[in-house]
Specification:
Layout: E1 2-6, E2 27-28, E3 31-32, H1 33-39, E4 47-52, H2 56-65, E5 71-76, H3 82-89, E6 98-102, E7 105-107, H4 111-121, E8 125-131, E9 139-143, E10 149-154, E11 165-173, H5 189-201, E12 204-208, E13 213-215, H6 219-233, E14 237-239, E15 244-245, E16 248-254, E17 258-260, E18 265-271, E19 275-277, E20 282-284, E21 287-288, E22 293-294, E23 299-301, E24 304-305, E25 310-311, E26 316-318, E27 321-322
Parallel strand pairs: 1-4, 1-6, 4-5, 8-12, 14-16, 15-17, 16-18, 17-19, 18-20, 18-21, 19-22, 20-23, 21-24, 22-25, 23-26, 24-27
Antiparallel strand pairs: 2-3, 6-11, 7-13, 8-11, 9-10
Helix pairs in contact: 3-5
The structure holds guanosine-5'-triphosphate (GTP).
Guanosine-5'-triphosphate is lined by residues 6-13, 23, 51, 53, 77, 80-82, 86, 102-104, 217, 335, 337-339.
């Protein structure tokens, strides 16, 4: 069985971290985001098709160096084709029913259980559903008692919402679904294809699950997933290799080769590899990209520092992001392929 993993987005809401790396390679407790998804795939998935575009060589390199015991195909889109377009572009690798999975969602969904549900319902398409309190930013499923989905409502007012279940970004599809998608065109599975399948076949189901679900689309959720997993593992901090620490840490993820000076306090933050943080510095709720140097007597609160930046002494950053280099060519200003939000 195959799984197509959507990993071709620019991740614009996570800039400047995504100016230099694919979003799916962002470290979560010092392990790339995409590794969590691959590790959650059932044994029945023996082939993984990575639908990539932006920073594809980084992703390819990661999978050359790391073996997950599955065949990995890097399927390079000539340009971002959207969720539907990317699935169609992978058609030649599909032999039977297959998953389409967003690479930026970390959750407790059990894909084996989802397969069982899909087979029992004789569905053409099953999507994962997650309950939220405030539905107004999401695509909300109109789901009836037996799990059948009869429609979606985009970003409804809370009082008009047909349910509190949102599309949680994992799809299990029969190969004939690909017949609905035009080749080599930007196609949104959610906006263009799913409504047609619902209308034409009525075999569209929603699989509800419990536990946790997080869409790592924004800086706030990127920080939160690190804290959530630390809490789950009951650890206070995660520390990489070659750590030299003369300061204090609380709820931090620290990469390799990090040095922290005297009287420096770091809380609820992520520090990437090769970072030097000098003396008498406060860092809270922030992310420091790789190869950065932060000099004495600085405060960095609710901020993100891109890779290879230097923060001079006595800097005060609050709600800021730092990137002093040219923006990479072709990097878009805004989201271009909103998938499920
Ligand atoms: P933003 O620019 O911040 O919205 O991030 P994004 O580019 O990752 O877009 P979004 O969060 O909507 O995408 C959800 C998932 O789909 C991510 O795993 C993306 O990598 C992936 N994705 C988005 N657009 C495309 C695309 O056109 N092709 C492929 N292959 N993947 C895509």
């Amino acid at each position: 069985m195959e799984a197509i993993i959507l990993a071709g987005g620019f991740g614009t809401r996570l800039k400047p971290l995504t100016y230099t790396r694919a979003k799916s390679l962002l470290p979560i407790l010092n392990k790339p985001m995409i590794a969590y998804l691959i590790e959650s795939l059932p044994n029945s998935v023996d082939k993984v098709i990575l639908a990539v575009n932006y920073k594809k060589s980084q992703i390819e390199e990661y999978f050359i160096k790391n073996d997950f015991g599955k065949e990995i195909i890097v399927n390079d889109e000539p340009e971002p084709l959207g969720t539907g377009g990317a699935a169609k572009f992978a058609e030649k690798h599909i032999s039977d029913n297959f998953f389409v999975l967003n690479s930026d969602i970390i959750c407790s969904l059990n894909l084996d259980q989802m397969i069982k549900f899909h087979n029992k319902k004789k569905a053409l398409s099953t999507i994962s559903l997650w309950p939220v309190e405030n539905v107004s930013e999401f695509g909300v499923a109109d789901v009836i008692e037996n799990g059948k989905i009869i429609g979606f409502v985009e970003k409804p007012n809370q009082e008009d919402a047909p349910s509190n279940f949102i599309n949680a970004g994992a799809y299990l599809l029969e190969p004939e679904i690909l017949d609905y998608i035009e080749s080599n065109k930007f196609v949104s599975m959610e906006k263009e294809i799913f409504p047609q399948i619902i209308k034409n076949t009525g075999k569209f189901f929603g699989y509800k699950f419990e536990g946790f679900w997080m869409d790592i689309g924004r800086i706030s959720s990127y920080l939160s997933i690190n804290f959530l997993l630390m809490n789950q593992k009951k650890i206070n901090n995660i520390i990489g290799e070659n750590f030299v620490n003369k300061g204090s840490l609380k709820q931090c993820s620290i990469g390799n080769n990090v040095k922290i000076g005297e009287k420096t306090v770091i809380e609820s933050s992520i520090i990437f590899d090769n970072v030097k943080i000098c003396d008498n510095i406060v860092i809270k709720n922030s992310i420091i990209g790789k190869n950065c140097s932060i000099y004495d007597n600085s405060n960095i609160i609710n901020s993100v520092i891109g890779d290879d930046e230097t923060i001079i002494k006595e800097s005060n950053l609050n709600n800021n992001y730092i990137w002093n280099k040219p923006i990479p060519e072709g990097y878009p200003e805004k989201q271009i392929g909103n998938v499920i939000k």
